[in-house]
Amino acid sequence: MVVPHAPRRILAAGIAAFALLVAGCGSSDDTAPADDTATEAGTPQAIVSLSPTTTEMLYAVGAGDQVVAVDDQSDFPADVPVTDLSGYTPNVEAILGYEPDLVVTNADTGDLVAGLAQAGVQTLILPAATTLDDTYGQIEQVGAATGHIAEAAELVASMQTEIEQIVATVPQRDVPLRYYHELDNTFYSVTDDTYIGQIYSMLGLTSIATGGDGYPQLSAEYIVEQNPDVIFLADGQCCGVTPEVVAQRAGWNEITAVRDGHVYVVDEDLASRWGPRVVDFMREVAAIVTAIPVAQPAP
After folding, report:
1. Of 53, 81, 219, 249, which has fewest CB within 10 angstroms of its CB?
2. What's the predicted TM-score (pTM) here?
3. Distance between CA atoms of 282 and 152, rounded to whole angstroms?
4. How far, in whole angstroms, is CA 150 from its chain's centroid?
5. Over the stretch 128-160, which tens digit does the pLDDT of each residue have?
6. Which of 97, 100, 102, 101 has the alpha carbon at shortest distance from 84?
7. Paired strand residues for 49
């Protein structure tokens, strides 16, 4: 069950946002309080986003009208101003061509922050979330950095309520369903320790993958041996993998998930962007889990 955070979390997140905000034209006094930086900076009117997740956060908190450009991978919402800017190999000169007063991204790649600072442009770095709490905190940070604190707080509260309701719909099982989440057709997967693994755990699932850095590469033989109850394919868009393709793999027709028809293609974006739409992903998975019959105890 997701427990709503105390109101002081919102204030803390607002302060944290500007602790992460690198001011290109602010005071050189490192002892200056973070909220002073916020006052000097003002509300940004020209934002560039270099990450699909940060783009979705910006629009979700109501800062869409302030966004002037997004990277070439951002495609949601449908009306985002997509450009050829790259979040993987950011070009400071190209970014400055959009005359931003704030750049939001997920990493300081290629000394991006230093380059923008020289031009007096602020950068907000939001690394990939590792927990739901990270997602909530980053949404609040985006709200604080863009002048949408109230909207961000409302969004977080709404997400928490929806997730609590979704989790409550999932049937209780004596033994969790075992799943295999396929990231690509070379059998990279996820463990229970990853962000998505934690989401699956909340919905009554446990991964057949273990060890490594959370994203181990499995073998086809291992997957068959582990015999998962359900398979999630996050490589339908990238690699054309479908339940039919999976069923044709050598020996896979004997896997419980394949035999019982519990192989599902999931939206790659929902399964990899840990922002506001994580709620949609959880709703999709919860519907799948709920539809799988609960095993009855032996008489």
Report:
1. 219
2. 0.83
3. 20
4. 22
5. 999 999 999 999 999 999 999 999 999 999 999
6. 97
7. 70, 104
